[in-house]
Design goal:
single chain, alpha+beta, Glycosyltransferase, Arc Repressor Mutant, subunit A, 28 helices, about 10% strand
């Protein structure tokens, strides 16, 4: 199922041992004259036997500056000879081995004050770090190589002592004493106030250029802060006002992103970040995790807005754009989702040098030639770098067209450009490894698409995509006998699964179960949570390790800070809180582990809650308490007025259980007393009308059969 992207040439040209790797990133370096090793025992044994330091290079296949460093230094014979003579050289794909990346990135950030990729680390043969950097210009890189080689040759003991001391400090800093009670309401308010100070009220987003969407740090906690107060009838006026501000900051950010150049208006999908403050000029790589998180955020904020808001239309278009893009360009034939598309590509099929954005940018001359009479309207509407410079109404008025006619002309022009691009421009490199964690995020977004846009034709497509992605993971990345997950798949399974693989995929399964009502997904999620607890839960100090047990990872860290993705700990907190109600017989055990996550991160939560936005948002839902909705009827009935009502508003503390009287969920009944009671009850009843029970604090109300009555019982979002 692999593509030819990134494969080493089989004929002509020498290859190193990375030619046998599965990672597309490692395969990109298979023809380097550098004598690369993969992370593993062979490299470590060689370093010890030859008493050489290790040069560790970490990156990922869609990383532009990784490509630059490779071209300038790793492809250079002189530099490669120096590396081979003085070092054992190890190449790591950070997406395959986040545990390696996490440990040494912590060292890099602690010693330089910054981080990023490519990451360059010098290690002792015992894997202790003693020097770190990121990208080095070619001349500077050779100087660093020689200087560190001299230091090692003259005084290796000094390097080893320094490395051991550094690891000891990292180990000590990871052993933070648990903190007591965490006030989630105060923490969420602190996150809101922090983001409000950094908010760009003109262009959306938080902070200055470059701008990243960063949903886990911004949009996710803002949506929960807004829902918490807008759905609380007893909330004070200032809290409701703050909630509306939080919602509107998030909505403006997403609408600016959708209308900016960060969106590929021709082919769909969103780039990783914008180099300017207007979301105008993108860094063109497209990551699966961005598509998944932006999809989820767009749908959540869509539900938080009044039905009359024009921004709802934009957010709906954004969601549909993402679903269409990933289904067409990031989906494997077997149903799993690929990881990324690169920023760099060849401008034409005759070109030999890749350029950043070559697949995406257009000159005015090209637009004139391809679009003819429609070119002027197109350029007015989309600007030079394609972004939405004017609304359809403004464009129609400018060219004396009705908005509908103007939109039809623009759609035709986009189709023309898309056809030309696919036919005449080489696509960017595709990182075609399939990661369990990012597929979990995508399954969540697709499942929510089905629930929120259930009346649209894209809903069933999204649900089918989610189910097929889950089926791919079951077939290729899950070991039924041991109950374990693998990290990645490309020409076979990759490394062992990490905490985020379990957390994100469990979340995806819970969301998929709520969408389609098939108990197999919930039961699978419960089993995976038990396996995650076994492998990653710290039974001594509480909380969860981010890394799988591995003798070569010198410090197992509990990194709960959110980054481009939410942390595994943050998502696990939500999973445990939800599972305490899905599998309520194990409520105490799940809740105790959830509380241990907050306690183990209590000090950091109080010092810098904005660094853990997803955890803070999930803690707020736990503090609010979960509402258990038990739907009794046919969950496959997309026309069900009761299900439609439950799904019509954003209820982040919702747990939706499905009970089909004609096919009772006996597996769920084994772990849920409320469902067990229904199984016993339904066997005594003959005629069962569709109904919903709402349960809180393990007390369930009477069945509600009338849609209007159910509407009265749902959280009403003021201002929505």
């Amino acid at each position: 199922m692999s593509t030819s992207h990134g494969k080493a040439r089989e004929e002509g040209g020498r290859t190193n041992r990375l030619a046998q790797a599965k990672s597309p990133y490692l395969l990109q370096h298979a023809e380097n004259p550098v004598d690369w090793y993969e992370w593993g025992q062979e490299a470590f044994d060689k370093a010890k036997a030859e008493k050489k330091p290790i040069f560790l290079s970490v990156g990922y296949s869609a990383c532009h500056w990784c490509h630059v460093l490779a071209h300038e230094s790793f492809e250079d014979e002189l530099t490669a000879n120096m590396m081979n003579e003085y070092y054992v050289n190890v190449k790591v794909d950070r997406e395959e081995r986040p545990d390696v990346d996490r440990l040494y990135m912590t060292f890099l950030q602690a010693t330089t004050g910054g981080g990023g990729w490519p990451m360059s680390i010098w290690l002792t043969p015992d894997l202790h770090p003693f020097f770190a950097g990121t990208y080095f210009p070619p001349g500077n890189f050779r100087q660093v190589l020689m200087k560190l080689a001299e230091i090692w040759e003259k005084d290796p003991e000094r390097c080893m002592a320094s490395g051991k001391q550094i690891i000891a400090v990292l180990r000590e800093s990871s052993n933070i004493a648990p903190e007591g009670h965490v006030n989630a309401n105060l923490l969420t308010t602190a996150v809101f106030e922090h983001l409000q100070k950094r908010f760009d009220s003109k262009e959306g987003g938080f902070g200055s250029a470059p701008k990243f969407p960063s949903p886990s740090q911004t949009l996710y906690p803002l949506a929960r802060f807004a829902a918490y107060h807008l759905s609380n009838p007893g909330a004070e006026a200032q809290d409701k006002n703050a909630a509306e501000v939080a919602r509107d900051m998030a909505v403006l950010t997403l609408t600016k992103i959708y209308n900016g150049g960060i969106r590929d208006v021709v082919g769909g999908g969103f780039a990783r970040y914008s180099v300017d403050e207007r979301w105008h000029v993108p860094h063109f790589e497209k990551m699966l995790y961005d598509q998944a998180q932006l999809l989820t955020s767009a749908l959540e904020l869509y539900q938080l807005l009044p039905s009359t808001s024009r921004s709802r239309t934009t957010l709906e278009l954004m969601a549909k754009d993402i679903v269409s893009y990933v289904a067409r360009d990031l989906r494997s034939p077997e149903g799993g989702f690929y990881s990324a598309e690169d920023a760099d590509s060849l401008p034409t099929r005759d070109s030999t040098v890749k350029k950043e954005g070559a697949f995406y940018v257009w000159t005015a001359k090209q637009l004139d030639e391809l679009l003819g009479a429609d070119a002027e309207m197109f350029k007015y509407h989309f600007g030079n770098v394609l972004f939405t410079a004017h609304t359809t109404e403004e464009t129609g008025k400018k060219f004396d067209k009705a908005p509908e006619e103007a939109q039809a002309i623009l759609d035709k022009a986009l189709a023309t450009l898309r056809e030309h691009r696919e036919k005449h421009r080489p696509r960017p490199h595709l990182d075609d490894k399939i990661l369990t964690c990012w597929n979990g995020l995508m399954i969540s977004g697709l499942s929510k698409t089905y629930e929120v846009l259930h009346s649209d034709k894209i809903a069933n497509e999204a649900l089918k995509l989610a189910e097929e992605a889950a089926a791919f993971i079951r077939a290729h990345l899950y070991d039924q006998a041991s109950g374990t997950l693998s990290r990645s798949y490309r020409d076979g399974q990759g490394p062992t699964g990490q905490a985020d693989d379990y957390a994100f995929f469990i979340q995806g399964l819970l969301d998929l179960y709520e969408a389609n009502g098939k108990e197999e997904y919930l039961l699978w999620a419960i089993r995976l949570q038990q396996k995650q607890d076994e492998l990653f839960h710290d039974h001594v100090s509480g909380g969860y390790f981010a890394s799988a047990p591995d003798e070569h990872i010198l410090v197992r860290m509990k990194d709960a800070q959110d980054g481009a993705e939410p942390s595994a700990a943050s998502v696990t907190l939500s999973n445990l809180q939800r599972l305490a109600h899905f599998a309520e017989d194990q409520h105490t055990a799940f809740n105790d582990k959830a509380r241990s996550i907050l306690a183990s991160n209590g000090q950091l939560l109080k010092q810098a809650p904005h660094a853990m936005g997803t955890m803070v948002g999930n803690a707020l839902m736990g503090e609010r308490g979960y509402k258990q909705f038990i739907y009794e009827g046919n969950s496959q009935d997309s026309e069900s007025p009761l299900l439609s009502l439950i799904r019509s508003t954003f209820i982040p503390n919702r747990v939706l259980l499905h009970f089909n009287p004609s096919n009772p969920p006996f597996g769920i009944a084994n772990v849920n007393g409320s469902v067990r009671s229904l199984v016993e009850e339904v066997q005594k009843r003959k005629d069962v009308k569709e109904n919903v029970r709402i349960c809180e604090n393990f007390t369930c109300g009477l069945p509600i059969e009338d849609a209007e009555e159910l509407k009265k019982r749902l959280p009403l979002l003021s201002g929505a």
